[in-house]
Amino acid sequence: MSGILDIKGLYKNYGATEILKDINVGIDKGEFLVLVGPSGCGKSTLLNCIAGLEPISGGAIRIAGQDMTHVSPKDRNIAMVFQSYALYPTMSVAKNITFGMQVRGIDKATQASKLADVARQLQIEPLLKRRPGQLSGGQRQRVAMGRALVRDPALFLFDEPLSNLDAKLRVEMRTEIKRLHQDLGASMVYVTHDQIEAMTLATKIVVMKGGIIQQIGTPHEIYTRPANTFVADFMGSPAMNLIPARATPNGQGSMIEIARDGAEPLRLIEARHAGLEGDILLGLRPEDMHEAATRPGTPLQGGGVRVDVVEPAGADTYVVARLGGKEVTSRLGADTKARTGEVLEFGFDLSKASYFTPETGERLA
Amino acid sequence: MSGILDIKGLYKNYGATEILKDINVGIDKGEFLVLVGPSGCGKSTLLNCIAGLEPISGGAIRIAGQDMTHVSPKDRNIAMVFQSYALYPTMSVAKNITFGMQVRGIDKATQASKLADVARQLQIEPLLKRRPGQLSGGQRQRVAMGRALVRDPALFLFDEPLSNLDAKLRVEMRTEIKRLHQDLGASMVYVTHDQIEAMTLATKIVVMKGGIIQQIGTPHEIYTRPANTFVADFMGSPAMNLIPARATPNGQGSMIEIARDGAEPLRLIEARHAGLEGDILLGLRPEDMHEAATRPGTPLQGGGVRVDVVEPAGADTYVVARLGGKEVTSRLGADTKARTGEVLEFGFDLSKASYFTPETGERLA
Amino acid sequence: MTDATYPAQKQSRALQIALRWGLYLMLSVFAVWYLMPLFVMLTTSLKSLEEIRTGSLIALPREITFDAWRTAWSGACTGVKCEGLQPYFWNSVMLAVPAVMISTILGALNGYVVAQWQFRGANLIFALILFGCFIPFQVVLLPMARTLGLLDIAGTIPGLIFVHVIYGVGFTTLFFRNYYVTIPAELTKAAKIDGAGFFRIFWSIFLPLSLPIIVVTVIWQFTQIWNDFLFGVSFSQAGTQPITVALNNIVNSTTGVKEYNVDMAAAIIAALPTLLVYVVAGKYFIRGLTAGSVKG
Amino acid sequence: EPQAEVLHWWTSGGEARAVSVLQEEFSSRGGTWTDMPVAGGGGDAAMTALRARVLSGNAPTAVQLKGPAIQEWYEEGVLADISAVAEAEGWADILPTSIAGHMQCDGTWCAAPVNVHRVDWVWANKAILDEHGITMPTTWDEFNAAAETLQAAGVTPLAHGGQSWQDATIFETVVLGLGGPEFFRAALIDLDMDALQSDTMKAVFDQMRTMRGFVDSNFSGRDWNLATAMVMNGEAAFQIMGDWAKGEFLAAGKVPGEDFLCASTPGEGYLYNVDSFAMFTVSGEDNIAGQNLLAELIVGENFQEVFNLNKGSIPVRNDVALDAFDSCAVLSSEDMVATSDAGSLLPSYAHGMALRGAQAGAITDVVTAHFNSDMSSDDAVQMLADAVTNSM
Amino acid sequence: MQWLERHVPKIVLAPSFIAALLFVYGFIGWTAWVSFTRSRLLPNYDLVGTIQYERLFASPRWEVALNNLFIFGVLFIGISMVLGLFLAIFLDQKIRTEGVLRTIYLYPMALSLIVTGTAWKWMLNPGLGLEAMVRGWGFEDFRFDWITNSDMAIYTVVIAGVWQASGFVMALFLAGLRSVDGEIIKAAQVDGIPTHRIYTAIIIPSMAPIFLSAFIVLAHLAIKSFDLVIALTGGGPGYATDLPATYMYAMAFSRGDIGQAAASATVMMIIVFAIVVPYLYSELRAKHD
Ligand SMILES: Nc1ncnc2c1ncn2[C@@H]1O[C@H](COP(=O)(O)OP(=O)(O)OP(=O)(O)O)[C@@H](O)[C@H]1O
Ligand SMILES: Nc1ncnc2c1ncn2[C@@H]1O[C@H](COP(=O)(O)OP(=O)(O)OP(=O)(O)O)[C@@H](O)[C@H]1O
Ligand SMILES: [Mg+2]
Ligand SMILES: [Mg+2]
């Protein structure tokens, strides 16, 4: 049983469609849970259920140790930022932010000082007198944030709160949220589709798909040891390469054989895992495929592959090649020597590899 | 004078506030213009002006060679994706997408095939019968995209069309948009706050701030030669480090002196530019500060700096240190040896550096 | 290559101006149609009885006289008293203002419940309340008279208010419910999270959004109540009769001499408060109250 | 001290002045008069209000009621007995018997009569008649002949307003004129089926059809006073209307016998429309005192004279001097006495004196439907019988 | 406390609901009961079977009234809706004189019909009104004498009815238009949708609830139109423009035949029920999916 939030066997249907299936997850005080998953997988719905805004079809929700399954939203002591903002159209920005405090009977002075704080953090001081209709998308989103941040609830729920902000502001806001989390020990459930946000903020990540939880773990676990190909594919950008390969036991480890176009198969030795055998999927992140020349010292296993596409992107260059009959992306430095059509000597870092069954996509090792 | 879109001296006020000031920009057929700028800088307003949805206060807009300044939106032959989606609430998803075609009297068969195409691209096939109210945020956004994509207008306007999508889908959508652009030679104006989107999609980037254009250029120009500290700071994540330094002429080049905490100043040689003198800001991207150990062969100038923060983020690790009295972030590999509190030997790649005056922030070299 | 309908701008600009003119023309034509009876009434009210008797009914007055207006306001006989509409005016005000307010507030609350706080059976209840709009007032007259007698408010202004509220609430509920269903549910959600309860959300979020529909409702209710005759005549007694009864007494005597000029003036006078409400309330037909509330 | 709340529908102009005479008298005798006027639809609205008042247990003290409605209300058990006043004042002696009959319920007095309107009047524009050499017709054939002459000369013979009660007014005068008092009584009071279906009744409808031809094409929905104005202005020659029409002539400064003529409609008999006040059961001494005082005053000589001078009608009492009354009123009064003796003093069906509402209404429906369509007289007679049966 | 809070919505709705049960359904029940009695001047409660209904359906006047209700109802509701909607849309085009025009369109509601009826009567009267006026302009053959024609008179009632009610419908629609999200209209404009299609396909569908309001109001007015007929035609010529409401009133109050009035009221309620319930059902149903 978890401290702040504890969800047990939660189901949610809209009519006949099951949106959430058997959700079990909990967080302790001060934890930062990030929900990720493809668009439409039920993240917002889950937040709504936690907040009590949607009736649930089965299961139970406890907040701060109390059964809240049938408690009205206002008594759940949560703050929430809506994906759709949901600003009060007739109130000024300032009023939008202070409304909750006012309802709770917090005194004017506190209201004013909190408002001032939040407005500064969110850089919306000049906008306080405006109506939501007079704001830009990002400004609206910040006001929506402000509404939550002035509160001091048991639990914060954030639904993609930074999606309409520019990179700089986003980083700043991220920092604010992190600070809020650390300084106040606030507990949070946070939906985002931004990998960096997920990775940098979360103490725990939940990956969902089609209303079912795929994996729960720390960012590091999720990133390095995805529970299945879905998670592997979903987390990280560009995604983890899932390269069809054949494994045969080989002494203490396994030998991994990967088909190459117009050359004989690449043979790599996986020293850590002995049990691999038959058709497998080798999961390797783009950054774990190096340009052999730049990293001569590291324990990489090399192989030349013909480069299909070279796509420079600021600090990195993405290089696409065909391996095991699939396109494989590697992330190389901006100064890579890779040229389209030429063969590049790659270095594979199998110490970071994952292995999956091709059929179910479950993790093997 | 440009081919498809030509904006001359455009001004836009809301009441007394000037939102857009003297905007001059144009694109040729097949160009992909990306608008970036901080939240509230006027990007959406500019799109609205181009679309004719907001009356402009001054200047002129030509589309496809014709003066459109006073033409109503429906006659401008543009397609637009709204930041707020603006789906037709009473129509099904399919109807939302096909409605425009239907009005234009396009035959049923074509409608159906276009709809099928777009639905596949956007992965919304199972949702075609739903109402917008029954969709998730990301799904709504995709429907909004679909409405534009089935059109074949002179100009596409996209306002943060992918902001609510998860990373994977986002990459896929980006590819679709790129394909649309390349295959059809479509002309686009695209607002985004996603640097990667901006960099990978744009043929031309416009950086705005407070309603004023700061720089127009190719992604490479903007990234490597920002016109001022604002652009330097704004583009790239984490932002370009702007390190206070002193320059003194030094033979063919200049000597750059940077203050270090608890050690004597760092001295670097800028070989490309001779004219630098006095207080300057040295602009250096995080990825141009390397871990000296990992890149022994490259022409880097080294120096040890004490590390303040180490922040791992998947493939990269961000390392923060103090230089010139400011926090400076460098992007190092996941396997960096940097440890908080210890001194790390950095390698600075001055061949990629920019220089700005501290007073106005204008680019020096 | 490009979309089928490509514009010809120059022409479209001219067309726009033409359309605009057409629009104003059309609006004016309708305005004339609406004004026609008022014109007849006004001109008649400014004529002398002599002129009405001898001249054409639909013609400008040969000589303008305001006597009829004066008589209608303070001199016309409505029974043994010949004090015009004046004394009845306040009865109507005292009746209409509270009745409109109460029924509007009730309707707003009911509509708010039905539209935003759906519970099982809410729609059925709404339908049942709504159906009440159709009950013929002639039907309710007698049982209601009995009820008022039992409640001991027969013949009083509170009794009349009671009746008007009962039979007005169906409409006000209808108006508000149908306006509130178009307001995004997210607003209620956000306010619930903010800790606001049922009434607070109503007061702070929904009422400010309701200006146009409040206007419509007030217009409807005020008109209905102010102009009501049947209830007014049946459930009042001497001293509480509303203005319509007085107007009727001036206008509708069967065998007395008909003074059309006074009739018309009286009708216009009786309508003035309603007109005032239209003009004043009309300002609140504001566009886009929900602007910027939610996206999607 | 006597108190009375009086529900009546005499609201405008002359009527109101007339009734205020009563109020003044009442006050001068120490009473408090609370006025509760409700006009409209010839008392329909007042009746509506009355019903509501009675049902809510809050009946007014005195109510303007007339004809069989008095008995109907009496049957509902809500009328008070004012026999004491009637006997003290000797009403039985001073009222024509047929009129007194209306005021009595099961042998007790329950209402006080106010005035007598004669309904079967023809009003005519003297100038027009003179111009075309026409004298007031005394038979319907004469009337038809005169009308045809006028029509040929381009004058609208009959000014009429197409409202059902006006249609009914003409109808009953024709019934009286063509059928005579006996027939009128059989058909419109006793609702004798044979009479209703008789050839005489067919002839009545034939005459109605003829009259329809004498009316201008714009008659539909016209108020009676506009029809009167047509006569006054020389646009039409005749109007058949009760003696309240006289008020319009007088108000316009016309003089009877000089500018306009009055005569009873062709045929013998007299159709009266008697206004009266019924007293409702009320509690409290003050109210009962008020009722009695009111009853006494209403039939009192002074009120009878002053009121009827104002109203254009004539007193119910046969002992009031008529010096102050105009020639038409004098004629009316004389005829009343004469017909009363001859037994041809009859209640007006069109004004709710002869029949109960349901039956009167059923007949009016047929009359007005016939008048406003091209229904044949045979059909009309059949329909009349059906409607009357159906209304029972 | 918790309980109270959870049930606030129900508690708020309760008084109106109870009032409706008592004063609407109770009274309807009462009326139904009385329709099976011989009540005359005042109600009595001894059941006598269906005789009142037999009388009702034997009455040619009731037949006319019912027919008229259908003609009048359909035309009045239809025309008022269309006209109201168009006027609202026109007024929504940023018209400078909106305030004045709105008041002009609305004012007929303010005037008591007992007097406006007279004005209309004059205008419709061929000898006094429009016909005379147009003839006066030299068009000698112009005819407009519906009000005197038994077959056409009901249409004059429609004209006056529309004149009175369409302004309010306009106001209702105007409020509805003003609640439509502007962004959506913008999206449609950019999508190249011509203005009329924006209205027909996007704005009007999203005003479906407002249509319900307008429909109910108009249906209510149509069914209860009493003053209108009384003032304009008095039910005439003959009883050609009688409506059930006037029939009922006449029976109940001028003829002292309350049983008959109750029977006609009951039939009216059944008709209303048959028309309104399916509409309500579909309208309220749709909100749920
Ligand atoms: N109706 C209005 N009245 C006044 N100011 C407005 C109005 N609409 C927008 N603004 C202001 O205009 C500026 C530009 O708005 P705009 O929507 O173009 O910003 P943006 O660049 O799209 O920002 P974002 O990235 O947050 O969407 C903002 O500062 C905004 O507050
Ligand atoms: N009212 C509704 N009726 C039926 N289905 C609905 C309704 N609301 C949402 N859904 C469906 O439920 C699923 C989950 O929606 P939800 O909003 O939780 O997705 P999400 O994970 O937040 O997606 P996104 O990242 O796009 O916001 C979606 O497939 C959506 O289409
Ligand atoms: Mg979501
Ligand atoms: Mg924007």
TrEMBL record, chains A, B:
Keywords on record: ATP-binding, Nucleotide-binding, Transport
CDD domains, per database record: ABC_MalK_N (cd03301)
InterPro entries: AAA+_ATPase, ABC_transporter-like_ATP-bd, ABC_transporter-like_CS, ABC_transpr_MalK-like, ABC_transpr_MalK/UgpC-like, Mo/tungstate-bd_C_term_dom, NA-bd_OB-fold, OB_MalK-like
PROSITE patterns registered for this protein in UniProt: ABC_TRANSPORTER_1, ABC_TRANSPORTER_2
Annotated Gene3D superfamilies: 2.40.50.100, Nucleic acid-binding proteins, P-loop containing nucleotide triphosphate hydrolases
GO annotation, cellular component aspect: ATP-binding cassette (ABC) transporter complex, substrate-binding subunit-containing
Similarity annotation: Belongs to the ABC transporter superfamily.
Record keyword ATP-binding present: yes
Keyword Magnesium applies: no
Domain ABC transporter stretches: 5-235
Protein name, UniProt field: Carbohydrate ABC transporter ATP-binding protein, CUT1 family (TC 3.A.1.1.-)
GO molecular function: ABC-type transporter activity; ATP binding; ATP hydrolysis activity
Listed GO biological process terms: carbohydrate transport
From TrEMBL, chain C:
Keyword set, alphabetical order: Membrane, Transmembrane, Transmembrane helix, Transport
Entries under Pfam families matching the protein: BPD_transp_1
Record domain ABC transmembrane type-1: where: 89-281
BP term (GO), one: transmembrane transport
One GO cellular component term noted in the UniProt record for this chain: plasma membrane
Regions that span the bilayer: 21-42, 88-112, 124-145, 157-180, 201-222, 264-286
UniProt keyword Transport, yes or no: yes
PROSITE patterns referenced in this protein's UniProt entry, alphabetically: ABC_TM1
Name under which the protein is recorded: Carbohydrate ABC transporter membrane protein 2, CUT1 family (TC 3.A.1.1.-)
Organism: Roseicitreum antarcticum
UniProtKB/TrEMBL annotation, chain E:
CDD domains from the UniProt entry: TM_PBP2 (cd06261)
Record InterPro entries: ABC_transporter_permease, MetI-like, MetI-like_sf
Transmembrane regions: 12-33, 69-91, 103-123, 152-177, 198-223, 258-281
Subcellular location: Cell membrane
Membrane topology, from the record: Multi-pass membrane protein
Gene Ontology biological process terms, A to Z: transmembrane transport
Cellular component terms (Gene Ontology): plasma membrane
Main location: membrane
UniProtKB keywords: Cell membrane, Membrane, Transmembrane, Transmembrane helix, Transport
ABC transmembrane type-1 domain location: 66-279
SUPFAM superfamilies in UniProt: MetI-like
Similarity-based family: Belongs to the binding-protein-dependent transport system permease family.
Protein name according to UniProt: Carbohydrate ABC transporter membrane protein 1, CUT1 family (TC 3.A.1.1.-)
Native source organism of the sequence: Roseicitreum antarcticum
